[in-house]
Amino acid sequence: MKYKKIREIILGKALDPMKSETRHSMALVAFLAWVGLGADGLSSSAYGPEETFKALGAHTHLGLYMAIATAVTVFIIALAYNQVIELFPTGGGGYRVATKLVGPYLGLISGCALVLDYVLTIAISIASGVDALASFLPLGFQPYKLWAEAFFIGLLIVMNLRGLKEAIQILLPIFIGFVITHLILIVYGIYAHAENLPGLVPGTVNETVSLAGSIGWTGVASMLLLAYSQGGGTYTGLEAVSNNVNLLAEPRERTGKMTMLYMALSLAFTAGGIIMLYLLWDARPTEGQTLNASTFASIISHGNPDSPVANQVMLAVVLAFEAGLLFVAANTGFLGGPSVLSNMAGDSWVPHKFRYLSTRLVTQNGILVMGVAALAILFWTEGSVTLLVVLYSVSVFLTFAISLFGLCLYWVRNRDAGGKWVARLLLSSVGFTICAGILGVLLVEKFMDGGWAAAVIIGGIAALCVWVRNHYRETKRAIHSVDEVFASQPFGPNADAVEPDPDNQTAVFIVGSSKGGGLHALLWVQRMFPGHFRNFIFVNARTVDSHAYGGEGALEQMRHDAESTLEYFVDFCHSHNMASSSYLGFGTDAVDEITRMCEEISNEFPNAIFFTSKLIFASDNWMSRLLHNQAALAVQRRLHLEGLQMVILPMKV
């Protein structure tokens, strides 16, 4: 079986990016966006509340404050990020906010933190999901958890390479199952202890006063702040919608806000409700089980005391849905991470190839990088959820803090927006204070328990990004100098079009967006083969990448720019009485599209020889080959295999 057929069976048939209905069929409505992007936030209720409650130690009565604070914080962050959706309706989220409102280098830090955040989204969700499954398996399964996690990551990589909407639709029943089962458990769990609710508040206040008498109010405040910060993982995922607005159905702003509302309501109810269950059911850690598993087991047994076997089955179903939702949440990392890398590639912080789409119109390179990085972190941490939560929380709240600081600056600078700016500045300021406070506590209290690793990883990624951008900047400057040299080339006096004769010798130039590069190739051929070629054909295949495919009108603008460049070359030839024409194509793989077009041209012009330019660096190494598309060599090999002649012209930079 041929490679292409196997690939089609696994990943699905190629999609045509130029059909207008293709993007609309892939765009997510609010409900599917809630499933695909909101699962990250909702799934954090599987580990965030547990970390908060465990940090309280024996003083579990303080859990009431944590339940209230958790629900309030979710809505504050969600409402603040609604402003991001309004201001940046094309997506980019925390990275774009920080870049535009604070500065490119803080934008870089935010972007690096987001990339790590999404890698950890995959790692921690898979690790927590396997932990949930292992809670009703024998203890002998524990040594195999890491390999099970690796298997699930591999499965999600394949699903996402097929396409984001397909992945979401497959995972939809799991999401709905989680919501229904946890809604029933939370409502019944609170109802079963309804007689304790009237005395809960006065009892909590009395115990808090008694505790303050022992360790002082400062000690109580410190304990609450640490527990609150430990549960920072609960709020992760709220930024996913603003990062991926470009994936939403039109009108994007309205769809994004509706999705954010679904996320806030579901997460506030679930996370706050689970902490209340811990408090009311006197939850205690059990070896080999999560706190959710032991608490849910008590609730199910209470509701059906005479059927222990049925209770075990029901608990298994609940935990299976919980694990399933965590796998859905891991999928968010495969949606959001490549999107952030794509935005950073647009600003030349990372290799441009992270903008390229596969035949299924997903950012394939980003998906693979996120999956491999998540595997590496899982094996490094040995799947420890506690360590992963620390790394995760530091990266998330660094992004939150920078983004909300950017919003504060924006509203201070735009005080002419009526009375709305005051309320929005206040909301952004409160959100920034909360997020910066959590970040500070985590870095201080958990520095030796993983906080240092998050700082080192983010710093290392940022340093590499600066090197990449400097390289691209120098290359762009060199190409611009070539354009300037050829910009002064005069047009000839002829004003009439000269049509090519298929029987004449033909020079076919594969050109890009650089007019200087195209003229360099044309003049080089005329100098080396004077009077030999009578036809001059220009071919351009534009890559439909994530930016071109991200919004309405982007493809049309790309087509206009490409046609304008080709028209320049053809007009230049006509002005010198040279027969000329052009061909334009679009595809997700430039090499495939150029090869296809060249084969068609060779049928029409049998005496054609193909030419293109390739950047030549003084110090060529694996890094320069990684950063620059090696399309010229790939096309030459493909054409040679078809018996067509192609010459690569060096363009030193």
Please describe what this structure looks like.
Residues 6-12, 20-26 and 358-362 have low confidence and may be disordered. β2 (535-543), α20 and β3 (579-587) form a beta-alpha-beta unit. Strands 3-2-1-4-5 form a five-stranded parallel sheet, with helices on both faces. The two termini are 43 Å apart. By secondary structure, the chain is mainly alpha-helical. 47% of the residues are buried. α6 runs antiparallel to α7, α6 crosses α16 and α7 packs antiparallel against α16 (385-413). The protein folds into two domains: 3-451, Amino acid/polyamine transporter I, CATH 1.20.1740; 489-652, Rossmann fold (3-Layer(aba) Sandwich). The protein has helices at 3-11, 20-26, 30-43, 48-55, 63-87, 93-101, 104-134, 145-162, 164-192, 200-230, 240-243, 252-280, 291-303, 308-346, 364-381, 385-413, 420-445, 447-487, 515-528, 554-575, 590-604, 622-627, 631-641; strands at residues 506-510, 535-543, 579-587, 608-616, 646-652. The chain is elongated, with a radius of gyration of 29 Å. It is a multi-pass membrane protein.
| CATH class (first level) name of the largest domain | Mainly Alpha
> Do you know the CATH architecture of the largest domain?
Up-down Bundle
**Protein structure class:** mainly alpha
Strand order of the largest sheet: 3-2-1-4-5
Tell the overall outline.
Answer: elongated
Q: Helicity level, as a percent range?
A: 55-70%
Number of helical elements:
23
Spatial separation of the terminal alpha carbons: 43 Å
**CATH topology name of the largest domain:** Amino acid/polyamine transporter I
N-to-C SSE string, H for helix and E for strand = HHHHHHHHHHHHHHHHHHEHEHEHEHHE
Low-confidence stretches: 6-12, 20-26, 358-362
Count of the domains: 2
Strand content: 5-15%
- Mean pLDDT across residues: 79
Taking all Cα atoms into account, the compactness measure Rg is: 29 Å
What is the tally of beta strands? 5
